[in-house]
Amino acid sequence: MVYARAAALMRQTGIIFLLTAGLAACATVTEPVAPEATAPSAPRASVMDPTPLPAPAHAPDPAPETRFRASAPTQYVVKEGDTLWDIANVFLRDPWYWSEIWLLNPQVRNPHRIYPGDVLTIQFVEDRPRVTVDLVPRIRIEALDDDPFPISALQTFMFRPRVLDAETLDAAPYVVAARDERVIFGPGDQVYVRNAPDAERYDLYHLVRRDRVLRDPETGENLGIATIPVGEVEIIRGGEPATAVIRSGQRESIRGDRLIGFDDDPDLLFDISRPPPDAEGQVILLFDAISQIGTYQAAVINLGRRDGVRNGQVFAAWEAGRTTRDPISGRANDVVQLPEEEIGTMMVFRAFDKVAYALVIKSTRPIREGFKVRHP
After folding, report:
1. DSSP string covering 314-344, please?
2. Are 190 and 111 found together in one domain?
3. Does one domain contain both 173 and 116?
4. Are 293 and 361 within 8 A, CB to CB?
5. Structure pTM?
6. 166, containing H or E segment
7. Is-contact 304 352, C-beta < 8 A?
8. Which of 50, 100, 107, 243 sees the fewest Cβ atoms within 10 Å?
9. pLDDT: is 239 or 264 the higher one?
10. Are residues 71 and 194 in the same domain?
11. pLDDT tens-digit map of 78-129
12. Of 149, 179, 213, which one is at a domain's C-terminal end?
């Protein structure tokens, strides 16, 4: 099971934690606490990748021999800066199969934590090739708590979006005014809420703003109304109107912002996996962007739970191939359609019935509306 982890840096003690996101695990550097007879003098690093590379879902099951690259070395020495994803690309044609060819050394407590100097070796076990790790003696400093950390550790880059139908949004309570005459409000401000007859003191709500209607670019189907997260409010007095205070905010609140309950908050602890093999959709909305997004920004795709999409699934993003004139061929108005190009990776972190929000984990070019997302 793959989990994202958080880690904190403590420079003076030499303990380094690292925040990792699914596929993007990073190496960290730790200072040795005692000299080693056989170790180099340079500081040791730990490849802190607490997230194992996931086994493929809905994929054919080729023999392990066919998964190895023809150029794969028989041995590989882990270096500072390596990640499991990098190392998987050294050995395998498809890094998603890393967990299936890994053989755990009994001395390794955590198979997803390796260090510079460790030697990875291809060995045949029961006539099947496997990758094993040979330990190099050393002193390491590690955190005692090794429990999986929920992906909510990435909340700096993520948010709690809502896609609602028009009836639900129109019936939701809304901010009608503030205690003073200002037109924008923020954390600590007292506001008045209409259409909340059942609200009671201490009730908490998400504060959202209508964005736009989402439509399928192929069929024109109404997929729901996207909302923009604004903040959180707490009811301090019921009534009509009710009185509330803004507890936190991602942006300024204005009249008309809607209050949505916490009932359907998602569980942000989930597996990293691949979507169904035939899953193909498009980016239909950029979050908090006008024309393009990049790493650690979010978008809406026109695939949802009804299409088999779940939180944690990873898609490849493809740039549409443009057309260009060919002035060399000699034919009049000769137009060439250039091929699509894979430009990034997106992870679903909130799936609704008809759409899903996905975080850009990696991109080599800006991602725009209309770009395709597919099984990687």
Report:
1. EEEEEEPPPEEE-SSS--TT-EEEPPPEEEE
2. no
3. no
4. no
5. 0.63
6. helix 166-171
7. yes
8. 107
9. 239
10. no
11. 888 776 667 777 877 766 666 656 655 554 455 555 677 878 777 766 666 7
12. 149
